[in-house]
Amino acid sequence: MPPPDALLAFALASLVIVVVPGPSVLFVVGRSLSLGPRGGVLSVLGNELGALTLVAAVALGVGTVVATSVAVFTAVKLVGAAYLVHLGVQAVRHRRDGAVGVAVAPVREPWWRVVRQGYVVGATNPKTIVFFVAVLPQFTDFHAGRVPAQMMVLGVVFTVIAFVCDGAWALAAGAARAWFASSPGRLSAVRATGGGMMVGLGGLLAVATHRSA
Q1: Which of 52, 82, 126, 140 has the smallest count of CB within 10 Å of its CB?
Q2: Is 150 exposed, middle or buried (0-12, 13-18, 19+ CB in 10 A)?
Q3: Segment (H or E) for 23
Q4: Would the pLDDT of 101 be above 60?
Q5: H helices of 101-183, where?
Q6: Number of helices (H) and strands (E), helices first, in the chain?
Q7: What does the domain layout of the chain look like in residue ranges?
Q8: 103-117 pLDDT, tens digit each
């Protein structure tokens, strides 16, 4: 268990990092616009489960390999970018699905599929790996031992904070989406916007350099 003062400092640092809109927020908002608040929250859940996987990898030393190897970093980055583009293209292609009648329901997908998609995005985010590699060691007490366990505790704290904050973004975007449901044309446009955001995010991730990540 990390020292209480280090745990509190890390929680505050995590909150500052999470509340600033970044790639995760863009992903969540895009999914909420395409799938509604339920899909957005499930995407957040999957994303944070993927982040927990990265925490475990960093705690066991795998994350350092990814962060220091340009080839491995690039491979992980491109996989994540390609998957984001795929999700975005699918959202744009199916933007008119269900656009019949006045009350248009969100695109419905099995919950496990939405969680799985969010997981893949979270688990292939190299920027998260680099963040954990650079930050987690600074808040651990190496003299107390069990450093991997301390890192896991810190990682859980980060993902809980991220789930709450990103979940709020998902609900807000889902609520705004409800207004568009009164018009099939507006709803089609907002679905396309959500898909376009994910495609753009994938493109930004693909061109991000190893140093800037």
Answers
A1: 82
A2: buried
A3: helix 23-59
A4: no
A5: 111-123, 126-135, 147-180
A6: 8, 0
A7: 4-207
A8: 445 557 788 999 998
